[in-house]
Amino acid sequence: MQRLPRLGETAAPDESPLDPTARAEMVRRLFQEHNRALVGFLVARLQSEAEAHDVAQEAYVRLLQLEKASAVSFLRAHLFAIAGNLAIDRIRKRQVRERNSPQEFFEELLTRPGPDHTAMAQEELTLVKDALRELPEKCRRAFMLHIFAGHSVQQIATQMQLTDRMIRHYVARAMAVCRQRLDEANAA
């Protein structure tokens, strides 16, 4: 039976790959000793306890995929590095989603008070309609179903027999085209 290295112990450079049982035991011990600190670290970065637990779990899964025992000496540091990188990825995805929020895009157009704002909103809406007509049918349809019909990405993907990723791509593409047309009109 393979001896289980201690968490701070340095493994020999030519050491063979860890067997799955030993790797799982090391990650279990690491979880017991450091999970509270890891989740606290992630909550501070993500501002969400639920996301912090998700990222921590994903980091442990990645640790279980380690092949060489030489990584054992840096297991805790490796865990926090993995978790930190996963947190950064989550933050970036969240920022992209927020920046491309369709609801935010149309909210200003639809909530402006007064007759002059109504006329401007009508002009902008016409620009958006023209921009949408230039898009391919699937792109336009996905965007319209998401924005105006309020369907979720998953519902649209099922209905159109496409992947969620493709629907998100279509919605983002349509948003970009609409924003571009409005920016061009505002610049002119």
Report what the structure shows.
74% of the residues lie in helices and 0% in strands. It is mainly alpha-helical. The protein folds into two domains: 20-98, Orthogonal Bundle (Rna Polymerase Sigma Factor, Chain: A); 100-187, Orthogonal Bundle (Arc Repressor Mutant, subunit A), CATH 1.10.10. The longest helix has 27 residues, at 20-46. The chain is elongated and about 65 Å long. The termini are far apart. It comes from Solimonas marina. Residues 30-95 form the RNA polymerase sigma-70 region domain. Belongs to the sigma-70 factor family. ECF subfamily. One of its GO terms (molecular function) is DNA binding.
What's a concise summary of this model?
This is RNA polymerase sigma factor. Helices cover 74% and strands 0% of the residues.
Average pLDDT number: 77
CATH class of the largest domain: Mainly Alpha
| Radius of gyration, in angstroms, nearest whole number | 25 Å
Q: Number of domains in the coordinates?
A: 2
Order of helices and strands: HHHHHHHH
Task: Tell me what portion of residues adopts beta-strand conformation.
Answer: under 5%
Structural class estimated from helices and strands: mainly alpha
CATH topology of the largest domain: Arc Repressor Mutant, subunit A
Low-confidence stretches: 1-14
Number of strands: 0
